[in-house]
Amino acid sequence: MRLLTGLTPGDKAGIDCPFGWPITFTRAVHARAHLQPWPGRGLDHRSQYQAMRLRLTDQRVHQASEVRPLPVSFDKLRAVAARRAYLADALAAAGTPVNRSGVTGRVVEVYPAASRIMWGLGKNRDMAVLLGAAPRLECSAQVWHAYEASEHAFDALIAWAVAVGLTVLLEGEEAWFTREEGWIHLPKRGSLPALKGPGPAGSVKE
Fold this sequence. Notes:
Elements: H1 2-5, E1 13-15, H2 23-33, H3 45-53, H4 56-65, H5 77-93, E2 107-109, H6 112-118, H7 127-133, H8 141-149, H9 152-163, H10 175-181
Parallel strand pairs: 1-2
Helix pairs in contact: 4-6
């Protein structure tokens, strides 16, 4: 909380956590709570389950990287999403509102495993390999240590890619999904060599 409220204009923080739930899921919970007809009425059980388990951004991550995100509404991840919702409300009350799409604001949703695929790093977490693939990045000894010690530093690297326009955005009629469900900012495939500068030195991860 303290790290996020301390962000200054131009800063970006990456959080490896779902920023929302599938719209179909939240609509179903709302209907149930208000004694309204179940929105999946008429669908078979399998179709209802598939419609409520993944967000649009989760589907797009799978299509782009072949990494399969966990279902936010039907897995342990739902508790993490609830914690993030609490944090987002606290940040808004403190004067740092969080835009779920990450297009505006200082906090973005990231997914390290899928981002490594998009950048051609596979499962490799070695800083020397990263710098070999991104020669325009600057790395102090302090940042090197932070990167080797914690996945948080890689989350921050993705946030830096968001700040300089190297991640995939959803546009057109589907963009409204991101305002409610959230949006995972995946780096554009092959964009790692274009990433330059010192970037941010840290991030926050729930």
